[in-house]
Structures are given as C-alpha cells and as structure tokens.
Amino acid sequence: MHARIIKVGIIQQHNTAGISDNRHRLSGKISQLARQGAQLIVLQELHDSLYFCQTENVNTFDIAAPIPGEATDYYAQLARENGVVLVTSLFECRQPGLYHNTAVVFESNGNIAGKYRKMHIPDDPGYYENFYFAPGDIGFEPIQTSLGRLGVMVCWDQWYPEGARIMALKGADLLIYPTAIGYDALDDAEEQQRQRNAWITIQRSHAIANGIPVVSVNRVGFEPHPEHASQGIEFWGNSFVAGPQGELLYEASTYEEETAVTEISLRRTETVRRWWPYLRDRRIDAYSDILKRCADNR
Question: What is the CATH number of domain 5-291?
Fold first, then answer.
C-alpha cells in the first residue's frame, strides 16, 4: 500500500558547463531536502549539463551515458545514502548511433525502479532535440515505487493531454515532468508572460482533467548560444506542484534557484475523483478519431 501523504522535494537549478559541478550542487541540495523530510525528489530535464540542444553538434554525443552506467551509479548512491525516491533526467546512449532523452527513477535503496524515454521530441529553433534523441519506445507506463506509481514524462510531453490521460488510466498516482523551457531573448515581456502562463495552465489542466497531482520541475537562468548564433535561452523557472483540482501547492520564482518540500495528499485524488468523475463519464466508444493524424482524413 503506497503512502497517503508524500513529501516531494524539487530542485530548480541553474546549470554550468561542468558535469561534475552540476552533480556536486545537486548532491548537496538532495541531501538538504532529505534532511527537511523529502521522500521523493525530482530533478529538472538534462540536469547534468547545459541545455546542449541549442545547436546540432555531433561531438555532443560524447557526453551521453549508458543506462545502467556511471551516471546511474552516481544517482543510485545519492538515492540510497539519503533514503529517497529520486527522479533524474539523463542523456542516454542506448547503443552507438541511438540516443534517448531518458528519465530514470531510483528507489530509496538505490535500485533502478524504472525509466521513461521521452516520447514527444521537439525540433524548433533553439530546441533541436530531434537531432539528438530518438522518440521513446517504452510508452506511457507508470513506474512502481515504494511511494506509489509515478507517471513520469519529460518536458515537451507536458503539452499533450494524451500522455497524461494514459498515465492516469494506467494507475499513476501523480504526474511528474522534468523540464527545460525558457524564453527567446527577442520575446517581449507580454509574450514571455503568455508563454509561461500557457505552460503552467496546460499542466494544471492535466491535474484537473485526471484528478491527479502534477509535479513540474524546470531549470532556471540564462544559457548563451554556444556558437553565438542567437541570443540564447533564459529558462523561466516557475517549477510548481499542483493538486488534483489544479490548485497550486507550491510555485517557484522565475529567475532564482530554489529548493522546496511540498506535501501531496494521495487520499485527495480519490475524493476529487468522486466529486468530478471524469474517468467514469468518458465516452470511449466515440474517441476513435483521436488516433488519426487528421480526423477528416484529408
């Protein structure tokens, strides 16, 4: 039987070019959150490095790591030493020429509880992920842990209600999104606010539509374009934890590094789903068009 109350720790961090530096700072923050009572700690997307997808560079594949391997050994030890369930986000080398953007979940004893390979891969200016990552082939499968079933997805997945719904239907107790998203420096303040609000709103809607808590952890701070071909990316932070009615239980700042521990009640999911029985009232007999690229087949 999973816990009824989970204390969730989040780490919103600004990254540097040094993998060892990023890991060292994460290690200290993980230990700090564990001392504050965190049972589950969630890291941001691709937390070991700068966000390298601003450019297409074949040499970048050198930093990818096998799973299991040295990177997972490092985070397994942190999970074990601190007695926490840990959600990480790694650049996976599956085999030569085949790479994924992969979330790995560690049990509190250091064992790998499961992994998720990012399903939706963006290919936009400044976010050239299709160059680096093959789409995930594991599907939307919640990961069983001692704290419950974690519906872990990654960044671009958070814009798609289908993934959130499938995770919920398969028994996820909460949805988790390690993230790396920010502003183009040319966006004005109003456009920045619209984008940030849209990002928060779509994920809160997953909480509401499925009656399930959502944990979204974004990186923060400015990362210049490695080749100075653009103004770089200002990652907007605003990591948050939402309850099953979309209520914000915690929201981080836009520009600062932050750590926080937030309590999530899994009992409340059952209560909310009894009030708002969306899963009961779904018309599964009428949804076949959602499996088509274009419903009118033109």
Answer: 3.60.110.10
